[in-house]
Write a structure and sequence with these properties.
The protein has 231 residues and is of the alpha/beta class. 37% of the residues lie in helices and 15% in strands. Helix 2 (53-62) packs parallel to helix 3. Bound molecules: NADP nicotinamide-adenine-dinucleotide phosphate.
């Protein structure tokens, strides 16, 4: 039986991004969604992975508005002012690798730490957006060292937390979710406008996956189509 089979409260973390905005739009119109809150770097409360304390502070500020039955963390980065995905090992630098680890792994891990406490113990789902390129088994093309590694490490955090949660909050499911290639700020420099699809389409598919999740799906790495991806 799906976990989210009755009215739910939702929280979108990173609601300023392309996928985050699309999820907000869909949830605001969804008949089962009673309330949706979005937070990002400029919201009140704010969440900024450059300021680690903001993660715990945001969770604390939102606690009174919970519990939430659905939490989706969309925060992630692929390129920045001072870094772009590596084509070869020679391009790897400590600065760019640590920037990606901070935003794609450490921030989302601490978000799990503080926000799982806001999940409804009776029935809830927390999804963190990962990427198929974070799959070790599926890596055929190489390149993108830091991004791949940061998402692979994120996947391990989600899997490990799901094992712990099965003991402490057995009615909550944690998953890693791949959105597919989506037109967004993140994908634009890499042909995302041409290769990707509109964020609303991807968000709609992901929402369908989330609404169909069962307890036994906790600890899995799923694609927007519902396909189980290899770690
Ligand atoms: N687009 C794709 O093709 C694709 C493919 C696979 C996986 N993904 C994953 O999907 C997720 C959403 O990506 P998107 O395409 O929607 O990208 P996006 O439009 O660039 O959105 C990224 C989000 O992350 C936030 N963010 C970035 N750095 C942050 C930081 N240090 N602290 C707090 N927030 C920060 C952004 O906030 P600001 O608005 O403040 O910058 C924004 O809300 C990411 O995790 C990405 O890895 C995307």
């Amino acid at each position: 039986m799906p976990i989210l089979n009755h009215p739910f409260n939702a929280l979108v973390i990173g609601s300023s991004g392309s996928i985050g905005t699309a999820l907000m739009d869909l949830l605001q119109q969804h008949p089962l969604c009673e309330k949706v809150i979005g937070i990002h770097r400029q919201s009140v409360p704010s969440i900024d992975y450059e300021d680690v304390d903001s993660i715990a502070d945001a969770a604390q500020a939102l606690a009174a508005q919970g519990p939430f039955q659905l939490i989706i963390n969309t925060i992630g980065v692929l390129h920045g002012e001072h870094f772009t995905p590596e084509k070869r090992l020679d391009d790897l630098t400590a600065d760019s690798f640590s920037a990606l680890l901070n935003t794609n792994t450490i921030g989302p891990a601490l978000t799990l730490k503080y926000f799982v406490k806001l999940l409804d113990p009776q029935h809830s789902v927390m999804a963190t957006l990962s990427a198929k390129v974070g799959s070790i088994e599926d890596n055929r093309l190489g390149g993108w060292y830091s991004y791949r590694a940061s998402k692979a490490a994120l996947n391990m955090i989600i899997k490990t937390a799901a094992i712990e949660l099965a003991r402490t909050k057995p009615n909550a499911a944690l998953i890693a979710l791949h959105p597919g290639t989506v037109q967004s700020r993140l994908s634009k420099p890499f042909g995302g406008e041409l290769k990707g699809r509109p964020a609303l389409e991807a968000a709609s598919d992901m929402l369908n996956v989330l609404l169909a999740l069962e307890k036994s799906d906790s600890g899995s790495f799923l694609s927007y189509s519902g396909e189980k991806l290899p770690w």
